[in-house]
Amino acid sequence: MYRLMYNSNVRYVSNRDGVYYYTRRVPYDVKKHYASDRLSFSLKTKSYASAVRAAQSVTQRLEDYWLGLRLQQMDIPAIHLVKTDDVEYTSPVMLDAVDMYLSIKGNNDRIFVRTARRNSEYVAKVLGNRPITSYSTLDAAKFRDWCFEKGMNINSVKRVFASVRSIINLVMKEHGIEGKNAFSGTFMPDRDDVTRRKPIPNDVLKRIQQRCMEANDDPRWLVALISDTGMRLSEAAGLAVEDIHLNEEIPYVDIRQHPWRRLKTPSSQRKLPLVGCSLWAAQQAVHASTSPYLFPRYCDGTTTHSNSASAALNKWLKQVAGSDYVIHSFRHSMRDRLRAVNCPSDMINQIGGWSKQSIGETYGEGYQLESTMDILKQVILHDD
Question: How does the average pLDDT of the chain come out, rounded?
């Protein structure tokens, strides 16, 4: 009777020199968590009955631990209803939360959707597809370290955390879920691993613009348009022909939201005078266009292919200007060029579409085209 009661654990008990040991193979599906595929350790007893009781306790603890590992590696139906430590988690799991988040946001931008899903999949992969309120601050720190191990720099890690934080915050708020967002307030170490974008010197800028005029094709028109406006690449690549106003007293480009291209911030919506090489590029692109889109090579009315544009244009730019510069460098240059002519900081933010830095900047309509035209003309003259 005694041996039958403990029979299920006897197979893990062995005797060596009169002392009983617990010996067991590690299951295949959790083997990656162990340095060895076999467990063997002393039960510290010479009594058979004590050894069997100890083995029973060890077996139960191991099974509980392995269950936890397995839950982290697989999607369990109705896991949001599982009770842990007598607390019932009713919050959605991470991959369901991102679906809710995207539905609430109603933003169908391809890059926005892809980024949100990718970051939530990272969390599910590293920490398990668990209820969003079940993650701990220790889990968040583990996820941060995984991001660094994956090769992300500090800015990339901060963007991933901001995305995950937004997903969890919005879903918890919309569904009245009580609890703490573990991804809020995670410590981010000081790491000097971010590549600083260099502004393009004036002599190199002139060389680039000259090469654009010599090539006189649509990829170079896109580069030239950015060069004297400081627009973001996605803003310029997603322009419609009707966004360019050449027959006005002050020629300008109207940067606004389109179904195929969202704007980064509310401040990104703006009107910019066209001067210098940017005016030339806009004229060439409008006159050559047989499409509603200014750069149909990179915009098809459904999506703006700014990543493809970036890869192609950066490759060309490095050949012309050197390896230190990329398309985004034009924005750094424009900020320096505006500083050089003593442009007010709030006008700099307006021209570049940067977020307003104070409450006062939100008052009024902002600078009119005449004022920004005067400043940009000063920039061109100063460059010469």
Answer: 86
